[in-house]
Amino acid sequence: METHDFPTEFGKDTPHGIFDVTRNEAMVTVGTDDDTAVFAVNSIQAWWTAVGRGAYPQATALLITADGRGSNSPRCRPWRTQLQRLADASGLAIEVRHFPPGTRRWNAIEHRLFSHISINVRGRPIISHEVMIKLIAPGATAAGLRARRPLHQTPHPTGSAIPDEQLERVEIERDEFHPEWNDRSRPHAAPEGGS
To answer: Rounded mean pLDDT of the chain?
Structure first.
């Protein structure tokens, strides 16, 4: 998403947000290269490890709402294989509900988190990753939203080809309601070596 990418003289900073509606908490991970499916799922996994697992110890599933473009498109092979990796590593069924085309602004994260990021960043030059991290989300908003903001400097290469055989190992169940946008990935019976 170009509206959420910030070029700096040191490269491109790409924030990816996870918003927990129930707890009114968010975590923004900032990548230092392109927005890829690996980065998107690593951000979700970072949230689950740092916050979600402790907040929801009895959880058996994780519900993700996402726009249907770019790295988290329902047709993106790396997105599907990375979600399977997360399901296997966490033991959770990963349920994804994609917003229909043209409706990504309906996502609560746009109003509750990224609107505050836009306000914080406006008119300020982002000259380094450190400046980006400081501007992206000051600890809390007036409405009580609390945000964490780690920096990911691990490369997430683009253009990874996913062979058919690897995609066939993904345990996808299509939802009855708009199966082209909504599905779940169940963990395999035995872990495939973690994440």
So the answer is: 76
